[in-house]
Structures are given as C-alpha cells and as structure tokens.
Amino acid sequence: MISNCLNGIGNLFQNKGEWEFALKCYKLSLEFAQKINHKKSVYESLNSTGDLFRDKGEWEAAEEHYNTCLEICFEIGYRKGTSIIYNNLGHLHQNRGLWGEAIKFYQNSEDISTRLGYKERLSIVYNSLGYLYKQKGELKNSEKYFMKSIAISRNLGFRKEILKSYNQLGDLYRNRGKWRKAYRLLNLSSDLAKELKDRKGMACSDHYKGLYSRNMGDWEDSLIYYNKSLEIFENLGYKKGISESYRKIANLYRDCGMWAQSLKNYKISLNITLQIGYKLGTSRCLRNIANMYRDRGRWDDALKFYKFSYRLSEEIGYQLGLSRCLRDMAILYEGRGELEKASSKYDESIEISKAIQDDKGTSVSFNLLSGVNIKKGDLEEAKQNIKESFKSAKGATPILILSIQLNNAKLLSLNNNHESAIKILNLANKLVGKIKAEPQQMDILEKLGMVYTNRYAIDNKKSDYECATKYLEKALKMSNRLKIPLIEGIITRGLGILEANRCYIYQKEENSDKINESINAAKNLFLNSVEILLKQDSSFELQKTLFEYSRFLYKTKNYIDAEIIIKSVIFDAINSKNYELLVKGYLLLGDLELKKEDITRNAISKIDINTVEYMIESIISGQKIHFDQNEIYFNSKLMQYDTYECYLKALENADFDSAIYMRTCYQLIFRMQKMNKNELESFIELLRDQNKDQYFDTFLESLKAKINGEDYTPTDLPISLMEELKNFN
C-alpha cells in the first residue's frame, strides 16, 4: 500500500535526522490514507508524525497528533494501537520532565498490554518505566523494571529490546557505583549489538562505555568510545546521534579544562541541533556552553547562554531543563558572591523539581542551597536543607549521597567540629576508593586536606600539617594522572595556603631558621598555581589564587608586591563582577594602606593599571621591578585611595548581598578595634555616610558616644553587636 510505503520511507529519513524530508513523506502518506479512508493507515501516519514532532521538541504538535491517534484507536477498537499511543504519550511527557503524568500514561499502556497479553509491548513499556525512574533517581525501581523487561524479552527472543535494557541497566549500575556489573552489562550490550549487526545499538553501547570511562577518570578511553560512537552515527547519517556525540566529547574536554576544544565541539553540536530543529538538544547544548563559560569565570557570557537555554526550555515546556538551568544559574551567582540571587534560583529550581516529582533534582538543589546557607552563616538553615536533601535522595546514587555528606562535613568543620567532619570524609573516601571513582575521590582528598589545613591554622599541631600534606599531595598526584590541570592548579593553591599557615606559625615563634625556607616554599606553590591557571585561562580560580598569594605576601610583610597583586585582583574582580572577592580585595588593600610606609605609598600610587600585568610577570619570574616615576602615570581612580577609602569601597560593594554586607561590617569592626581615638572618630563619620544597615548605624552612633565618654544605652542592637561594642575601651 502506497501510504505504508511512504510512512516507511519517512521512518528511514527520520532516523537519519532528515526531519523535513521525513515530514513530507508522512504528509503524503496521510493524504493517501485519508483518500481511501483507511483508518489504521491514517493512525500510522499520524503516530509517525507525532514521533517526529516529539523528537524535534515541538511537543504541543506531537501531543495533538497522538490525541488524534487515540480517537481513531477508540473509534476502530484498535487496542494494541491504544497501548502504543499511551506509551508514546508517556515518552512525550517524560521528555517534558512531567514525570507524574508520564507514569500514568505508561501504566495505562501496561494495563492494556497485560489484558491483551501483548508481551512485546509490555517489554517496551517496562524499559520506558525503567528509564524514567533512572532519570528520577529512583534506582531500585528503575532496576526492577529493566529486569522485568529483560525477562519478557528473553522469553520472546526480543533481542533488540534486550540490547536497550542492557545499555540502560549498565548505565544505571554506573550511576550506583557498581562498576563491575556496569562493565559486564555494557560489554554484553556491545557484543549483542555486533551479533545483531545493529549499528545504532553499537553506537549507543560505545556512548555508555564513554560515560563509564569518564566517571572512572579514564579520559583517553572515554574519548575513544565517544569517537567510535560518533563514527557510527556519521556513517548512518543519524544527525541527532552525531550532535549528542559532539556534546559529550565537549563535556569531556570541559572536565579536563580544555576550553578551546570544548567550545569547538559544542559549536558543532549546536549547529547540528539548529539545522535539524532538535530543540531539546539545542537547549541542553546552550546550557552546557553556559557551564563552560561559568567554569572559566566568564560569567556574563555564561548568563547569556543560560537565558537562551531557559527561554527555549520554556518554549517547548521542558520542565527538567528549566529546573537544571535555574540550578546552574544559582551556582554562577553563588560563585561570584550573589548569595541572595543564588538562594532564590535554588528555591525556584526546587519548586519545579518537586512539581515534576524529580527527587534527584530536588535533593541536588537542597544540597547546593545548604552550601549557600553555610556561606551566609545560616548554619541552622543549612542543617535543615541537608536533611531535606537526604530525604529526597532515597535510592539515589552513591555519588549524590557523597556530595550531601561533603556539605555536611563542611558544616561541621565551620562549627569547629573537625573530628566529625574528618570522620565523614574518611568514610566517603573509603566508599569512592572501593568503587574506584577517581575524580570523586580526588575531590574528597582535597577536602580532607583543607579540613586538616584549617585545623592546623587553629591548633598549630604538627600532625594536622602532616595529614593535610598527605591528602593534598595524594589529590595532586591523582589530578596529574587524570590530566586535569584545572584541579591541579586548585590543589597546588591549597598546598600554598597550608605552607603559608606554617610560615605564620614560625613567625609567631620567631623561628628565623625556618621562616625563609617556609616563605620560599609557599611562594613557589602559589606561583605554580598561578602558572597552571594562567595556561588554563581560568580567570575565576586564578583570581582566588592571586588573592591568597597577596594575603600571604601581606602577612609576610612584602607589602609592595602584595599591593601590586591585590590591585590586579580588584581590577579583574570588577570586570568579571566577582563581588565577594572584590569585597575581600578592598579589605586587604585597606589593610595594606595602613601598613605601608609613606614613601612606598607615594611610589605605588602612581602605578598605571597597564603596568600591573608586567609587574605580576616580574614577580612570578623572580625579577626585580624597574620603573621610572617620571614615565609611569596613573590614569584610573581605581588605584587612588586615601587611608580608609578601601574599607569604604569594601562596604559599598558588599551591598549586593545582605549576608555579605553584615559580614563586612563585622570585618570593619575588627579593624576599628586597632585604631586610635582620632582615627576611629574620623572613620566612624565616613562609615555613617556610607552605611545602609540600621543596626550597624546604631552601633556606630553608640561607639562614637562611648569613645567620647558620653552616655550610650542602645536597646535595639543584636547581642553580637553589643558584645563587639564592649571590646572597645
């Protein structure tokens, strides 16, 4: 029959991603079927057209076609067709992230197939349910349905469906950290695909093997599998698969900090999705590009791509994409210190995740929100959100549970409960060691090292220094082996902070024999971190390293170099809108202004911003800086400061977030305690003109009265500010 032939031709072109030509075939098929009033053929044409619109992301059009198919099935009593359409509607709603609705459609399909004894369809429905529950993070439910599908498919000899189940189940075991089972099933799926000469199945197996290798930290193997998958898809002309392969390769390069290669592959993937009208793929690719820019510290570029991705997800009703986009935007805002905006975006993400019954997404967002609470000092709220994260994580992957535990450890560490934090991290380390998830283990080792570093800074115990060194060096070796230079730079910075802490202890002990050795060791580590991060063009992490290096130089009384570096950090922080670091930078620069000798201050204040890069390079290379004051002039207000102007700028720039603002107020109070009466009086007046917080204003008014011997009786000050007031004599 002509209609069926045209429909079959359309299916072939749809599988290749030639969607416009496929759509023409389906339209012709429908016209022929309608001319002879052959309802079942009309159904077939409409169903195929619905599948095409579903794949393109035109989900309203897809739903309209499926609903028309349902009407035809009811009219002609075609119950098998009804089961198929319910399954397709489930798939459609699953794509949208409307998982509760999807489950209802799958269950309707299951009920009809069970009553009809339509076992082939049951196998497909169980596979669909298994995939849905895997997306939701309900891995036990997912495993149950995949096993049910495999059992039916084996009895029927339905080997293509077994192949799909093996791939999905292997990927599920990867998610659960059951690496041996995952590896065995992925090999079985690969062998079965070869046996069946199912080239698309072979490509899918290679794709999942690539994901497996990526989780294991085997970047080279992962790239080999992704490229094998890409080659098959290219030979098949399957454009959707080609775009996904390029996107996965780009994600891999992003993990390694290879930004140029990552962006190149994202662009190829994006061009294909735009060419074929694959809106779901376009939305994902835009969000991935945004994540790459975010990781590099190019936050304005990242926000543009997030907004594009969000708008497209909104257009096609992709709820899961909306939730993830909001969460990724929140991570960006958190990174640059906009904690209120970050909290708001996490809340929006949680709201959507709950609405679509996305337990895994809900758990992840609650966990990330707890990290913001910790930064804001809302430790009770952080504790509550960690509980909520655990509650939503039932049946989740070990990696997700680990990430929640890491925040729990961070919370305990901030409460100076280092023992409990170390206990949690050690348990986490044993778990990832057992499942051989090296990238995750590297992260835990780094966090263990930093907990010991923080405890060493407080207690000055040699054993803490040794433990910190051991864990950070293990993490560093792992980053070298896995070839992740970005992480190598971050861990090297951690070692620099550890060595700096040891140097400060030697300074207190006036141990002159050890001080110079320790200063050189810390300096080399910070500069190694700078060198690595410069090569990676990772401005966000580079700014953090330069800030830590400048603080180290300040504490070791190398004020000139410290000022050069911190001014560079401030300049970059202004350009990148890294507000939290900007506030810290101004506070440190204020401290430097108070410490410097007048002659040094006068010389440095004339340095042009254009010479800063030269000076940093000179410091890194160990050369002395030479400049002629008659030739170097300063043209920007950025570097011209009075004694207290830096502190005022810190408060001014802290206005973007209420928690950061109050924290800055306390930082200023700490510095005010070191001022003499005249300095304090002048500074109080300047602060009162600048300040926007009611309580801090009352504090300043009371402090002024106190130092002048006048009566002060503040009744509406928080207890913490009352305590600070008592510290002024």
Overall geometry comes to elongated
Give the overall pLDDT as a whole number: 85
Number of helices: 36
Structural class, by secondary structure, is mainly alpha
Q: How far is the first residue's CA from the last residue's CA?
A: 99 Å
Residue fraction in strands: under 5%
Radius of gyration: 30 Å
The percent of residues in helical segments reads: over 70%
Tell me the major beta sheet: none
| Tally of DSSP β-strands | 0
Low-confidence stretches: 597-610, 623-640
Describe the structure.
- The protein has helices spanning 2-16, 19-35, 39-56, 59-76, 79-96, 99-116, 119-136, 139-156, 159-176, 179-196, 199-216, 219-236, 239-255, 259-276, 279-296, 299-316, 319-335, 339-355, 359-376, 379-392, 398-414, 418-435, 438-459, 462-482, 485-509, 512-536, 539-555, 559-576, 579-595, 598-604, 612-621, 645-653, 658-672, 677-690, 694-707, 719-726.
- The protein is mainly α and 729 residues long.
- Helix 1 runs parallel beside helix 3 (39-56) and helix 13 packs antiparallel against helix 14.
- It starts with a helix and ends with a helix.
- Residues 597-610 and 623-640 have low confidence and may be disordered.
Q: What attributes characterize this protein structure?
A:
single chain, 729 residues, mainly alpha
Question: How do the strands and helices of this protein lay out in sequence?
Answer:
Blueprint: H1 2-16, H2 19-35, H3 39-56, H4 59-76, H5 79-96, H6 99-116, H7 119-136, H8 139-156, H9 159-176, H10 179-196, H11 199-216, H12 219-236, H13 239-255, H14 259-276, H15 279-296, H16 299-316, H17 319-335, H18 339-355, H19 359-376, H20 379-392, H21 398-414, H22 418-435, H23 438-459, H24 462-482, H25 485-509, H26 512-536, H27 539-555, H28 559-576, H29 579-595, H30 598-604, H31 612-621, H32 645-653, H33 658-672, H34 677-690, H35 694-707, H36 719-726
Helix pairs in contact: 1-2, 1-3, 2-3, 3-4, 3-5, 4-5, 5-6, 5-7, 6-7, 7-8, 7-9, 8-9, 9-10, 9-11, 10-11, 11-12, 12-13, 13-14, 13-15, 14-15, 15-16, 15-17, 16-17, 17-18, 17-19, 18-19, 19-20, 19-21, 20-21, 21-22, 21-23, 22-23, 23-24, 23-25, 24-25, 25-26, 25-27, 26-27, 27-28, 27-29, ...
